[in-house]
């Protein structure tokens, strides 16, 4: 599979990377157990598919994802664009964590991440969540100081509102914004994406296949008790049967186009981004090579207009918010989620 490259951001802080990246939260067991050897084998497979963009965070498995990536990158660091994040304290688990973006914390955490990753710099470093108690200007200023220090080459924001992105960009150039975006999660379209398009900021969609919901392998009857998705409204018992019915409609469209459902989800995303004038590098995560190849099939596919229109209509029918706490994500703070 030949994979094209693209550029995130503009000017001196732009970043050239593959059009598709790998999101490494899965390597920390969020969606089920995976051994270190299987993680390394999967990363090798992804690299063979010409993926050069790897994304992780210090919170994933309390550093486990970074550690595994560091082992994989030990003798090939310069082959990859490496991104990580700071700004979520572990707390008592999903739904009970807190955002932290003060300058002291950011400057402390970068050194821990670099050590686990076995490198002296990150290509992209995000503020993982906006801290309601710390001005975005302070957080972005601290990230910018890491660029000056040579520890980071470019910076980003995750789940920031359109207004927060603009304020941060005025302090130091933002190269990329990372937020959830998929056929079922559309709240970044009214404010976040237009701000990115206006300022020349790249966009990195996470969960582009709806945390595995928009795939051929998802089984609503087989969610393990320890699966992180149990904490998200889409997957709760009162919502999942309805959302599984919507998934069946997406699968029917994919079948008609002779695509895997995950591939269709990515193809829709690229096409939607082009229409909105935003450069994107989605970062799906998976634990299997077969699932990865289904995803990558969607990178350069054109979806017919009738199918795009049918898929567009589904987001308004999804049951439940995309987050356990709407205040935790951009659309919630912009009043775009039902309980935001």
Report Rg.
18 Å
Overall mean pLDDT: 95
Give the number of domains.
1
Provide the CATH architecture: Alpha-Beta Barrel
Distance between the termini: 41 Å
CATH class equals Alpha Beta
Low-confidence stretches: none
Question: In what order do the strands lie side by side in the largest sheet?
Answer: 3-4-5-8-9-10-11
Shape: globular
Structural class: alpha/beta
User: What is the CATH superfamily label?
Assistant: NADP-dependent oxidoreductase domain
Percent helix: 25-40%
Largest sheet: 7 strands, parallel
Strand content: 5-15%
DSSP, total strands: 11
Question: Could you please say which CATH topology applies here?
Answer: TIM Barrel
Query: What's the order of the H and E elements?
Result: EEEHEHEEEHEHEHEHEHHHHH
Note the total helix count. 11
Describe what this molecule looks like in 3D.
The protein is of the alpha/beta class and 340 residues long. It has a single domain (5-333), classed as NADP-dependent oxidoreductase domain (TIM Barrel, Alpha-Beta Barrel). Helix content is 36%, strand content 13%. Helix 1 (36-48) crosses helix 2 (64-73) and helix 3 (103-117) packs across helix 4 (136-148).
List keywords for this structure.
13% strand; globular; single chain; TIM Barrel; alpha/beta
Give the arrangement of secondary structure elements:
Elements: E1 5-8, E2 15-18, E3 21-23, H1 36-48, E4 53-55, H2 64-73, E5 81-86, E6 88-89, E7 98-99, H3 103-117, E8 124-127, H4 136-148, E9 155-158, H5 162-171, E10 174-180, H6 192-199, E11 202-206, H7 240-256, H8 261-276, H9 289-296, H10 305-312, H11 330-333
Parallel strand pairs: 3-4, 4-5, 5-8, 8-9, 9-10, 10-11
Antiparallel strand pairs: 1-2, 6-7
């Amino acid at each position: 599979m030949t994979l094209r490259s693209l550029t995130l951001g503009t000017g001196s802080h732009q970043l050239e990377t593959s059009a598709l990246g790998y999101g490494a939260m899965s390597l920390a067991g969020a969606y089920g157990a995976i051994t270190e050897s299987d993680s390394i084998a999967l990363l090798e497979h992804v690299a063979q598919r010409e993926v050069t963009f790897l994304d992780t965070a210090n919170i994933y498995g309390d550093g486990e994802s970074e550690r595994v990536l560091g082992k994989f990158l030990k003798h090939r660091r310069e082959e990859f664009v490496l991104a990580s994040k700071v700004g979520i304290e572990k707390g008592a688990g999903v739904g009970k964590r807190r955002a932290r973006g003060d300058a002291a914390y950011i400057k402390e955490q970068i050194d821990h991440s670099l050590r686990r990753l076995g490198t002296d710099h990150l290509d992209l470093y995000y503020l993982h969540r906006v801290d309601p108690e710390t001005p975005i200007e302070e957080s972005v200023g601290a990230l910018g100081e890491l660029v000056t220090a040579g520890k980071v080459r470019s910076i980003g924001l995750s789940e920031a509102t359109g207004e927060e992105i603009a304020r941060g960009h005025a302090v130091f150039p933002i190269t990329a914004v990372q937020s959830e975006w998929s056929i079922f999660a559309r709240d970044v379209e009214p404010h976040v994406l237009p701000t990115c398009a206006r300022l020349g900021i790249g966009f990195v969609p996470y969960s582009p296949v709806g945390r595995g919901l928009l795939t051929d392998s998802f089984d609503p009857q087989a969610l393990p008790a320890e699966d992180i998705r149990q904490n998200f409204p889409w997957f709760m018992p009162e919502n999942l049967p309805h959302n599984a019915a919507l998934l069946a409609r997406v699968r029917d469209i994919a079948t008609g186009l002779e695509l895997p459902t995950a591939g269709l989800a990515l193809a829709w995303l690229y096409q939607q981004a082009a229409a909105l004038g935003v450069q994107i590098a989605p970062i799906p995560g998976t634990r299997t090579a077969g699932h990865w190849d289904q995803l990558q099939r969607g990178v350069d596919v054109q979806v017919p207009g009738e199918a795009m229109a049918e898929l567009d209509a589904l987001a308004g029918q999804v049951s439940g918010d995309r987050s356990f706490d709407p205040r935790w994500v951009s659309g919630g703070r912009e009043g775009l989620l039902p309980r935001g």
